[in-house]
């Protein structure tokens, strides 16, 4: 219970960008509330960032300054090392390791670090009796790591899904609502400062893939395996696909899906069609959503801001306050040594697919496409060919459930028929 | 960290209805998983229920039987007393108190018990170094108590809202979708076994009000005060109101809303209009939703099954596994002695209202109504009078934001004009 450990809990904060400054503000402004809730006072001992002189809108005079985050991590007056620098390697990794080796707890918002080194860091934390928490790394302010690790721990998890990159969802929403092309919506998001320095982290699905790999580890008790996430960005989604999908009652989302089946661990982050009336389909703009399906609880949907100063700082504080209250959890919900290493199963669960192709206007063209699908064992649920004024006819096909392998075979076959112009678009329809 | 306490965690389960039997099944069937996740084996020592002979679809032979739940609560071989009997007083209260006095942790699904005696029980738990957890008492499988108590603990909470009675939401959904009258939808829900033995617990808003009072205590650091919840059931919601609301882009929900303002603690559980396109507006059928708004995190929406064996057992297990992992939390998120006793503020926050009245067909009737509203300081945003074939004309008014007090004054004034037939319907429009 609180109040049994009246000593202050001392933070060392590395990284004073938007989120770091936000955490400092909350610790300063809500001191009484945080103490009331945890029974301990939360203090900041020292901070570190690249530039000491930058104005961050918060007074840092009372805190020791360290140029080197590793030195910060090892300070005697730091109980929790708060890592808000980012980056999968370099200073963030070195400082996190130094803190854990020194037996200090670590709270981080760094999805890349954990996606690449989660297993090793979890082992290091446990070997040193330290706690490593990362609520802020996934879906911003939504307490989804907590829900999955703790609240739903009595469940075997069947599926975890998520729209976890607000920038991609913003772009897709703007394409649908304003009829923008991908390039136009991308430029708009860029102008609003929504994109990472390397935009491919967002639109290539990498950032969201990092998050999915962390959720999968907790959900299935498996070692984090980001490299096995099937990644497909949103760059090939066209306004045409968005319109056709809408016309059939679907929306296109950059959707993460993970499942553990007898064939292995499926993790995919790719543009998918979801029913427009489902919670995922109704999610517009920069908001995040995570859907967790457990054998007991059924479907739980969590929705909230996935980024930004306040939401991310809220998640960082949640982890800090857990530690202040004495909660000591393993990193991924069970001892790191018991996390299973399972093979990757690439989208082996059958699903319906949406196909869009441009058919040369020749007699028998459609029959050739249909017969290629049939030969691959892919059956057609719905098909539409549209009126057209140029040499090719737009054709839409919704398949019945099929494996990705069968679909790939059909796609290869289609290009070999000579009646299809360019590469067909193929998007999975995720049933939610 | 797990594995530091290898002794088994021993449960005594009182109440073997649907949820109790569900908990027994999970503990039996998932023993290895639960141990992997917590580092401790979870065992059942003893059980108690009203009838020993009833077939509950689960083998209880391995467990000691107690006819008296108080005796169960005090057994030396019980570490956690799991209270799944229900009822705000009687055996549930006596056994919970006995367990806490004996220093045993308690996990309960009993919203009525905590809504009526939460403060005293929290004090008793703390005085005895015991933990009292109740995730299953609110919104079934949704880990909302955990989200509010822990994940969002760095926030000052601005508002908590919830649709937390699936039966009411089912009835309202069926009225809208199938055009049923309230009585028809009620009868249908009754036939499906959705109603409590005392239906007023559901349709009178009492059950949902219990839940709201628990969320408010955690959100605002206040003592549970169920008696101060403004309760209005769904019995007066007519199909006419549902249709008119839909026509204006709203849906009617039995919505709990709580806020802490300078005027005091607002808690209301009443039929409200919410935008049809909002997450709350889109919630149909028996599903629950809780919306939490914090100063840092913004709006978090949690959605899932609010009742049933699996979801409720999932929540009970969540609490048990927390304790197995060594997590020790205060009942309402801070020490019971620091929970504030604040005055109740009855809907003092201004809101727009929906009014429906039947106007006698006389010259000047509408002018009288409009002038009564104006005198009370209530201004009109939208107004419609419909064509009619009988003596009275249906009139709909949506007001601008007004206080409940001003609105009540206007409603009294309306009945005194002599031009309004019967009592006007007045429903708050909650802006979400």
TrEMBL record, chains A, B:
Residues 354-425 form the ACT domain. CDD domains: ACT_HSDH-Hom. The keyword Coiled coil does not apply. InterPro entries: ACT-like_dom_sf, ACT_dom, Asp/hSer_DH_NAD-bd, HDH, HDH_cat, NAD(P)-bd_dom_sf. Pathway: Amino-acid biosynthesis; L-methionine biosynthesis via de novo pathway; L-homoserine from L-aspartate: step 3/3; Amino-acid biosynthesis; L-threonine biosynthesis; L-threonine from L-aspartate: step 3/5. It comes from the Bacteria. Its EC number is 1.1.1.3. Keywords: Amino-acid biosynthesis, Methionine biosynthesis, Oxidoreductase, Threonine biosynthesis. PANTHER family: HOMOSERINE DEHYDROGENASE. Belongs to the homoserine dehydrogenase family. This is Homoserine dehydrogenase. It comes from Thalassococcus lentus.
